[in-house]
Specification:
The protein is mainly β. Helices cover about 0% and strands about 55% of the residues. The chain has a 4-stranded antiparallel β-sheet with strand order 2-1-3-4, with no helix packed on it. Strand 3 and strand 4 form a beta hairpin. The protein is elongated. The model has no long low-confidence stretch (mean pLDDT about 90).
């Protein structure tokens, strides 16, 4: 994603297909990058929820499928 404006924060949550939260990550520094640590979890399909927040408001929310391969 593109680096954010001042005051915005990007967050991502990764879920398995059963809906269990696997991990979270955020970008408070507006670097344009979120790292998610999936070590210890099986290769396969996961669902990521990506949000851009400004204060308590969610400005953008995207749900995407992600394939993890170790």
């Amino acid at each position: 994603y593109s680096p954010l404006a001042v005051g915005q924060v990007a967050v991502a949550s990764l879920y398995d297909l059963a809906g269990e939260l696997i991990c979270n990550g955020s970008d408070h520094g507006a670097s344009g990058r979120i790292d998610l640590d999936v070590r210890g979890h099986a290769s396969g399909l996961y669902v990521a929820v990506f949000e851009v927040k400004e204060g308590v408001a969610v400005r953008v929310r995207r749900v995407i499928r992600i394939a993890v391969k170790h």
